[in-house]
Amino acid sequence: MFRIAASLLAVPALILSACGPTTSSEGQSDASQTPVERGQYLVSISGCHDCHTVRGTEPIGSAARPNLAGSDSELHIKGLGVFVPPNITPDRETGLGGWTEEQIADAIQKGLRPDGRILSPAMPWEPLYSHFTREDALAVAAYLKSIPAVHNRTPDPRGPDDTDDPAFLKTVPRRDLPPPPDGK
């Protein structure tokens, strides 16, 4: 039991420790990274792809799994409803394209959307990402603004009375994505 609890606590600790000064694989310090490079690094170690990219075995960024273009998984939160992690590419209609880098950083650190609503607890901004420095949150925003826009609308959240499945994670059909290159 203790090992399980220690393992669960280790993940946030690793993520938060990665936000401090580091050295790249080439031995260069963070000071030599551009904000987009730093943001890409933070997105990769923070697990953004785990929720905001379709699950599967194809490489992330392939036609079948567009990078950060929204999920095919439903997150059921008792008493609140069902949430599908949205598209966080810079698509203006279905992603973060209409958000400024400051607004994206506010969502990361404060859980605050530009329209004033608070993000659902499915987005772990409070226990994890609120500890990012402002510089790191803006670096993530710069990276998200730099990736290719993918037009992909994810399902809207549903209220607590709309949950009929006790499962925590459930796959939902994709919308608005082109078929994989092999046509299947």
Automatic annotation (TrEMBL):
Q: Which top-level group of life is the source organism from?
A: Bacteria
Q: Which residues cross the membrane?
A: none
Protein name per Swiss-Prot or TrEMBL: C-type cytochrome
- Where are stretches of biased composition, namely Basic and acidic residues? 173-184
What GO molecular functions are on record for this protein?
A: electron transfer activity; heme binding; metal ion binding
Pfam families reported in the protein's UniProt record: Cytochrom_C
InterPro entries, sorted = Cyt_c-like_dom (IPR009056), Cyt_c-like_dom_sf (IPR036909), Cytochrome_c-type_DH (IPR051459)
Q: Keywords for this entry?
A: Heme, Iron, Metal-binding, Signal
- Signal peptide residues are 1-24
Q: Does the keyword Nucleotide-binding apply?
A: no
Q: Where is the Cytochrome c domain?
A: 34-148
Annotated segments matching region Disordered: 150-184
